[in-house]
Recover the amino acids of this structure.
């Protein structure tokens, strides 16, 4: 069996082992073991990948495997990874691992919750290892379907409305995506050869430019909806605010990254000429996403909505950087996916822990929490500092790479103008982060009942410390990671990048 297929098989096997479990202790034990194996597998894959590259293996994708699924249409189960895929698999395994501990006391229907959580994880892992468009789309849909139940059953607030809104809007994006994939398939062999959905095979041939001009916007839009592209972002704040803690962590931390990853892997990689010609349209929309999300977070009073709008802004930066088509900016985009995935997972974990104690997410009803829960408060400060781009943490590395790559020599005045505009989000981010930290953590205790609250438990500390170590690790020593990602862009052909 191919090593990469284990990332799909392990969650499925964990689901099977989970089925006969009868009590909460058994369920927790199975989830911890399954999540730990996934994390160990991702670390092992990282080591193997780096070892192969150091040994001189310059193949575009490593650990590839192919198996025919439906011969008449040449549909295959095809997998492989490059540096970007390895980074995304590592991020996903970290979020799944920490999400298990963040959901330690999930009630009711604990087993059912984790079964759907594992199905969602299966789709995410399968998506990142796929190099066949059909396989990728299948795992994409598997990742979306569980969200409706996870939010609709275990969510809070207007959970039914949020679950339905999220599902309908993302399914709408899937419809655009399906049209784009079929269009790419029927233009995958312009010389009259065999049609294919294998991304590596399609990249060896030119998709006719006139076909690219309508396939690129359809495909980019299909993936962009999941990446919170303006004006199709409205599902995101409501979905995040209503989702349970672990689902918010996986949703914002990983699921939204499927959008950015798909825009790069499919839309830009396979249709570079159209990306050059039409990218400015989406660059304007992503700039609006960056600023709209930041300003939207400023006016919110609910902690989850603040972080949800912040996610719209930070995910907008991912799509923004990809569209600049420079090696530095696109490397920054992948680093931003990693950084935001870790930061937003940390934020949502902390918000869930704070809400579980205070029973409110309204910042006007909180204050002085640093006095009663110092560990959680310090973790919140660190998450905030990473979000506003403090040097030494992951946010600084990713945002500097994005803005430097977007503004580098050779960029047009238009590109430099929207880059300066997007940079304004840094100031706005500092405003809402510092405002929230000052409001909920310092000053006097607003509610006398909060003076009796407890601090983080051991299992909560495992989740928080893991995420903080990863955020600090990227910020302090980013070169090994950025080099691994940058090498993946060297495989781009036909002048995709402005080098």
């Amino acid at each position: 069996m191919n090593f990469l297929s284990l990332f799909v098989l392990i969650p499925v096997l964990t689901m099977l082992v989970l089925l006969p479990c009868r009590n909460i202790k058994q369920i927790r034990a199975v989830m911890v073991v399954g999540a730990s194996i996934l994390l160990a597998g991702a670390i092992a894959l990282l080591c193997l990948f780096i070892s192969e590259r150091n040994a001189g293996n310059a193949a575009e994708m490593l650990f590839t495997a192919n198996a025919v699924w439906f011969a008449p249409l040449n549909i295959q189960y095809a997998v492989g990874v490059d540096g970007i895929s390895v980074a995304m698999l590592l991020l996903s395994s970290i979020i799944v691992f920490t999400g298990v501990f963040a959901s330690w006391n999930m009630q009711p229907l604990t087993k059912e919750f984790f079964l759907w959580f594992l199905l969602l994880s299966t789709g995410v892992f399968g998506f990142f290892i796929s190099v066949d468009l059909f396989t990728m789309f299948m795992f994409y849909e598997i990742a979306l379907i569980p969200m409706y139940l996870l939010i609709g059953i275990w969510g809070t607030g207007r959970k039914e409305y949020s679950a339905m809104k999220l599902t309908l809007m993302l399914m709408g994006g899937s419809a655009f995506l399906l049209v784009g994939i079929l269009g790419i398939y029927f233009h995958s062999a312009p010389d009259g050869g065999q049609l294919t959905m294998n991304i590596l095979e399609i990249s060896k041939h030119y998709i006719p430019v006139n076909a690219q001009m309508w396939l690129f916007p359809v495909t980019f839009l299909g993936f962009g909806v999941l990446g919170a592209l303006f004006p199709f972002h409205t599902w995101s704040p409501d979905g995040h605010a209503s989702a349970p803690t672990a689902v918010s962590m996986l949703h914002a931390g990983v699921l939204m990254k499927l959008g950015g990853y798909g825009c790069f892997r499919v839309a830009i990689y396979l249709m570079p000429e159209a990306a050059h010609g039409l990218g400015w349209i989406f660059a304007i929309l992503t700039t609006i996403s960056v600023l709209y999300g930041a300003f939207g977070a400023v006016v919110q009073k609910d902690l989850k909505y603040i972080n949800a709008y912040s996610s719209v802004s930070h995910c907008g930066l991912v799509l923004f950087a990809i569209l600049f088509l420079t090696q530095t900016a696109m490397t920054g985009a992948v680093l931003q996916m990693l950084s935001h995935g870790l930061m937003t997972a940390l934020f949502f974990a902390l918000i869930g822990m704070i809400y579980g104690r205070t029973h409110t997410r309204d910042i006007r009803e909180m204050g002085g929490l640093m006095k009663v829960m110092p560990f959680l408060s310090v973790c919140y400060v660190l998450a905030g500092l990473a979000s506003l781009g403090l040097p030494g943490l992951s946010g600084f590395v990713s945002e500097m790479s994005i803005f430097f790559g977007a503004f580098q020599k050779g960029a047009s005045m238009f590109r430099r103008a929207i880059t300066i505009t997007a940079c304004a989000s840094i100031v706005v981010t500092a405003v809402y982060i510092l405002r929230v930290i000052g409001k909920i953590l310092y000053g006097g205790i607003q509610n006398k009942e909060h003076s009796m609250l407890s601090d983080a438990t051991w299992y909560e500390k495992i989740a928080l410390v893991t995420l903080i170590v990863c955020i600090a690790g990227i910020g302090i020593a980013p070169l090994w990671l950025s080099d691994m990602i940058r090498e993946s862009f060297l495989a781009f052909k036909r002048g995709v990048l402005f080098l």
About this structure: The chain has 20 helices and two strands.
